[in-house]
Amino acid sequence: MIHVTSAQALRLPGVNGHRQRGITLVEMMVAMVVGLILLVGIVQLFASNKQAYRIQEGANVLNENARYIMNQIQYDLRMGDHWGGVERDDVEVMSDIDAVDGDCTGAAASIDVVGIFGIDGEAASPLDCIPDSDYVPDSDIVVIRYAEAVRRATGNLADDRVYVRSAIGRRAAVFQGVNKGDLPADLLPADLDAATIEEEVPDTANFEFRTVIYFLRPCASQDLGTAGECDEDDDTIPTLTRLTLDGMSLVEQDVIAGVEQMQLSYGVDTDGDRTPDYYSSAENLTTDDDWDKVVDVRLSVLIRNTEIDVTYVDENTYKLYGGEDGAGVEYTAPEDVQRYRRKLYNSSIQVRNMTRG
Q: Considering the domain boundaries, does residue 241 fall inside one?
């Protein structure tokens, strides 16, 4: 047996005679500070990347919204003044049509056969069917009317909807479905219960009557305060909105949020060559005959991003179509919303039913 003394044990290989030391409080605090600095940097990097992503995503949404807006308004404008192969002067509005709930009055009334009618922006709402609280000041309004493109069998017409019955190349009548039996003799269907268009009298057709009124509303949601009205409890996101004839009511529909300004200018054909000779604001077109000469519409919409960019201030002055004699309208965003990025979209839309010949 080998005996090892304590002194010998201290000299054994791998055995250290000194006690192992830990980190000091100062070293720990330095490490914590360095770690916190790195963590803050990483958090800031993620936050800035997230903000950049949200702004880019908002810009993509803005572009998509612009395309959707243009498609919607362009379709309606191109359909304006379509009466099923009949000129407007040969379209009769029957007198026994019921009143439209929530209708506008005067030249903006729903049941009329002026295909396009514009209203220049004012400080307060220029239409009685749009309250001041639901109108973006100085934004333009456009009223579009037409017979939709789909033919409908007489037996399938709803009593509470408005239609156009057209004898192609001769004349047409605007009537309510419940009164289809009271149409003029030359437009009266041979079979009021015809279930297919093949059963209709040759060269006659029924189309649903459409009225669409585009305007800007100062809020996206009307649910927080007074129902159906923009007030101080609602948001402040300007929204492209339309009133649409649905049955015997004028119904409000949201189109796209974030549309801050809308202006229109109207191309007038004075010599009958179906091309505009000059562009005018709506206030200079005072008669139905003036509106019948509109063959092109210039549309400007200014759309803003839905996300605030804290690194950006938009002090730009945007030049939109419209204005006196089509000279244009200048717009600068109010100071309290200059943190939003914006983009201006312009389009020239041919009113094809007014250029037919």
A: yes
